[in-house]
Amino acid sequence: MKKIKRYENKKVLVLGLALSGVNAAKLLHSLGALVTVNDYKKFDENPQAQELLESGIRVVTGGHPVELLDEDFEWVVKNPGIMYNNPIIIRAKEKNIPVITEVELAYEVAESMVIGITGTNGKTTTTTMIAELLNAERSRGQAYVAGNIGTPASLVAQKATSDDEIIMELSSFQLMGITELKPHIAVITNIYSAHLDYHGTREEYVAAKMNITKNQTEEDYLIVNWDQPELRELSKKSKAIIIPFSRKEILNDGVYLQDDVIYYQGEPVMAKENILIPGDHNVENAMAAIAVAKLLNQKNGIIRASLEKFTGVKHRTQFVTEFKERRFYNDSKATNILATESALKGFDAPVILLAGGLDRGNNFDELIPSMSGKVKALIVFGETAMKLNEIGEKAEIPTIISVQNVEAAVSAAYALSEPNDVILLSPACASWDQYRSFEVRGDAFIHSVEQLVEEAIEEGE
């Protein structure tokens, strides 16, 4: 870690805790800053604030008093989830106090190369793929994943060395708060409309995403989805070397698909069909990851071997197992209709879909086109079981069964299945009616599949 002097004896306000806030406060404290942490949760209900206080860091809890800004802070480090219309943030801007996010701190102290990944969809999968490709058969150093993926970048930056890379997943919320962060390699997977409740306008959301390249120079690289005309145009504003990727067009200066083979700058790398996780969106994610790996001189054979066994990020169209020619996939992260639509598009084989969960008032009509002709059976559960049953009937799905929960859905799906079927958990709903989180729901699915396979083997099937 670089021992920078920038924050020494300077007053810094860390606004909001959670993992990023806690680690930002600890890092600043170690750099000699005079840190004040402000969190909305009350102190007696706030073990993170209690821990920081024991470490000698001042804490203010139970609200966000604007009067804090009267103390002449020189920086505010904002939790990404706190919106910019928060009164403290508004006051900080009025007083010309820089407002940054934790990833900016991480960049300032990092000795290692930073590779930044953003986009509306596919960030986590692409980030994870890149780390897998760079760590395969590696003899020195390590590629760490950090940022929006769940591990605070400021924590990783303190242990990563010049032999390592930090693969930093960056959300629009984080990218709004950067001043100097400059990935040597930046990736934009795609851009659609999202988080408009936070950003206010699509223009502001897109501008936040494009901050990933604002500090790049002619010595850096920007990997861009060339199948999106908007990104082609936006990339013209970057000073970095553009590495495009496309499923639809041959690009001699980038990554492209020709005759179902993925090429990098004219060189064949691997067959599309050997990417284990399904869907065109995952082909695009793999292309972006391949571009990063090739820029860092990874061998084609290692790239192929890594992607041929990459089962996906847990709970995101994750390949669980194949048994008796049935393939099981865990897409518990699909907590909305769009995510389930995307998952269904990834399969050509007949699908037995497991869906249901918390009722947020949706009518699910948007699912009908992606279900029709593809979903051979629908297993529903949770608060939305009746609604999804009705949608299944409209989509003319021949078999619809209502069960109690995910565990029961696995048994019912297997009983209905035939060789070459896909059994897919993609609920299109949040989990909170029956499960504490989508992770717990996905783990229940995985455990049920493993138990089913084990029992079937014991019975001699």
Automatic annotation (TrEMBL):
Domain Mur ligase C-terminal residues, every copy: 315-429
Entry's localization field: Cytoplasm
One protein family per Pfam: MurD-like_N
Pathway the protein contributes to: Cell wall biogenesis; peptidoglycan biosynthesis
EC identifiers of the protein: 6.3.2.9
Residues annotated as binding ATP: 119-125
Family annotation (HAMAP family): MurD (MF_00639)
Family: Belongs to the MurCDEF family.
UniProt protein name: UDP-N-acetylmuramoylalanine--D-glutamate ligase
Organism: Carnobacterium alterfunditum
Classification of source organism: Bacteria, Bacillati, Bacillota, Bacilli, Lactobacillales
